[in-house]
Design brief:
six-stranded mixed beta sheet, 8 helices, two-stranded antiparallel sheet, alpha/beta, 10 strands
Length: 351
């Protein structure tokens, strides 16, 4: 169960927002798809890209991202599903040897990371994040620079969650390891302070990592777990989207706090404000300095009168074009003049 169990077919750029030298390059790789199933993988890869780029904050940062699809055919479908974790015992011959039941947890899905990197290094050498999509209906995934996901129901959110770890350095915000009611050693976080930006042991309003996002009227801590021997099942006492300090995070029932009650890094809800900020911070260097405006085309007569007004604005801006923001505004107006009749629907068109 290795590279002898399939073949690398090729690579397709499915979301093109510019040179790979300038963009954040996400590579989606097939695992456990037979040659005849690669058409379905193409659908899955496109589906994932569409879900990702429609989700906040990726929707506003999508111009920073390229997405590539690497087609890899395996001799057999699926992934190893050991009976030791309650699985079927299946052990198909697949290219990257995908397997559930790692560290005794069925949902923890891994592949041969080194082999994946070797393949992607050859196909997309300027990659930043790899996502291996495993052709199995069993729920699972894992983080890392080689993230994995199965194609169980809701798998796109699982994949984005795993990317939260590997691409953006976010921690798990849920309060268990193996599961609520299963863990016996997850009562109190032992320390030290977690390095990730979205979990903390500090619930002090004045010193907590995300203090600038907390409203003055939000209680701190916002929730406290009354029984540290179990997951806290209480409802949120504050409206959705409120940033505070909610106890139960980083795999522990108590002494660890998350920024919001719900988040992609806890229960596959939309990303919390702290996570959104970290994603933006990571992707901002991959945005171009100036993008063309989007607008509908106009008639020749309308464009004539618009151009007169735009030229007057250009005359006002001309002495200040040495300022980068003014220079971009100048370019955008010139673009409008030149493309007034045709319009522009591409929000990622670089100037």
């Amino acid at each position: 169960m290795s590279a002898s169990d399939g073949t690398v077919v090729g690579t397709t750029l499915i979301v093109d927002h510019g040179s790979p030298a300038d963009r954040f390059n996400l590579v989606v790789v097939a695992e456990g798809y037979r040659q005849t199933e690669l058409g379905q993988f193409a659908v899955h890869a496109r589906q994932f890209a569409d879900v990702l780029l429609a989700m906040a904050p990726f929707d506003e940062m999508q111009c920073a991202i390229n997405v590539y699809r690497v087609d890899v055919a395996s001799n057999q479908s699926g992934a190893d599903d050991p009976a030791a974790c309650g699985g079927t015992g299946a052990a198909p011959a697949t290219y990257f040897d995908a397997s559930f039941c790692n560290a005794g947890i069925r949902r923890l899905l891994t592949v041969d990371d080194n082999l994946v990197r070797t393949v992607v290094d050859a196909q997309v050498p300027q990659w930043h994040q790899i996502l291996v999509v495993v052709n199995s209906p069993v729920w699972g995934g894992a983080g890392g620079d080689v993230a994995t996901t199965s194609v169980a129901m809701g798998w796109e959110d699982v994949a984005i969650h795993e990317m939260g770890h590997s691409a953006f350095g976010l921690a798990d915000e849920y309060e268990y390891w193996a599961g609520c009611g299963v863990d016996t050693n997850r009562d109190n976080h032992p320390g030290p302070e977690p390095a990730e930006p979205n979990v903390t042991r500090d619930s002090d309003r004045a010193t907590i990592k995300w203090r600038d996002l907390i409203a003055a009227g939000t209680p701190m801590p916002t929730t406290s777990n009354p029984d540290c021997t179990r997951c806290d099942g209480q409802a949120s006492p504050v409206p959705a989207g409120t940033v505070g300090a909610f106890e139960g995070a980083h795999y522990y029932h108590c002494d660890a706090f998350r920024p919001e009650y719900h988040c992609m890094m806890r229960n596959l809800a939309p990303f919390c404000a702290v996570c959104r900020r970290e994603i933006r911070r990571t992707l901002e260097p991959f945005l171009a300095k100036c993008y063309a405006p989007t607008f509908h085309g106009s008639s020749a007569l309308v464009c004539f009168f618009k151009t007169i007004g735009w030229v007057l604005v250009l005359l006002v801006l001309a002495p200040f074009v040495w300022i980068s923001s003014i220079r971009c505004a100048f370019k955008r107006i010139v673009f409008r003049i030149r493309n007034c009749r045709a319009g522009n629907a591409d929000s990622c068109r670089e100037l």
